[in-house]
Amino acid sequence: MSAAPPDIRFDGRDRFVRAVDAAVAQGDGHAVTAALRSALCDMTRDPEIRLPACVYAPIADHYARRELYRSPEHGYSVVAMTWGPGQGTPVHDHCGLWCVEGVWSGTLEITQYELVERDAERFRFRAAGGMQAGAGSAGSLIPPHEYHTIDNPSPDRTAVSVHVYQAPLQRCARFVHERGEWYLRTDATLGLDALD
């Protein structure tokens, strides 16, 4: 994992950044995420925007997080995630940051969770809906509705998603299943994988 990303270039990067900048300029979190969902859906179909080849290469022991861009003006971060067959996340949050996630290729299963009860470091969650998202689709998470899992259900295909975070997501809370609807909270530091 590398500490800071380089200024990565890819086909259509300037067009991509202009679209995200325009969406983020909306100001209000709900308006921003709605505009970003639309922009990400459009960009997945834009033949002039091609992500770097490295984002299609999975890493065997974890899903990959590769930062493609960080806005010096607006503070947002764009991260491409690569999901090898069967890879996924535990229930987690985004530490209070909004996020828009678009599926660039493959299929992902996203399950949202509702926080029902909390007892110190124990959290009771209930699945509040799920969806199978294919390439060209996008969704958003706005706190306090940010608890979710992401999984690549395919036994043999890699999936790639692009995530626009309000600010660089360097830590989050992960929730380890204890029993029933109860989970234990653990704090996680998130690294970035190399862009090579």
Q: Mind explaining what this structure looks like?
A:
With 196 residues, this protein is mostly beta strands. The protein has a single domain (13-189), classed as Jelly Rolls (Sandwich), CATH 2.60.120.10. 14% of the residues lie in helices and 41% in strands. It is built from two helices and eleven strands; from the N terminus they run H-H-E-E-E-E-E-E-E-E-E-E-E. The chain has helices at residues 13-24, 29-44; strands at 64-70, 77-83, 91-92, 99-105, 107-119, 122-134, 138-141, 148-151, 159-165, 171-179, 182-189. The strands form two sheets. The protein has a six-stranded antiparallel sheet, with no helix packed on it. The chain has a five-stranded antiparallel sheet with strand order 1-2-9-4-7, with helices on one face. Helix 1 (13-24) packs antiparallel against helix 2 (29-44). Mean pLDDT is 93; it is low at 1-5.
What count of helical segments does DSSP give?
A: 2
Helix share of residues?
10-25%
Which CATH architecture? Sandwich
Count of discrete structural domains: 1
Secondary structural class: mainly beta
Number of E-type strands: 11
Shape: globular
Average of the residue pLDDT scores = 93
Proportion of residues in β-strands: 35-45%
- CATH topology description: Jelly Rolls
Spatial order of the strands forming the largest sheet: 3-10-11-6-5-8
> What order do the SSEs take from the amino end to the carboxyl end, as H and E?
HHEEEEEEEEEEE
How many angstroms separate the termini?
12 Å
* CATH level 1 class label: Mainly Beta
CATH H level: which superfamily? Jelly Rolls
Which spans have pLDDT < 50 for at least 5 consecutive residues?
1-5
Rg is 16 Å
The biggest beta sheet is recorded as: 6 strands, antiparallel
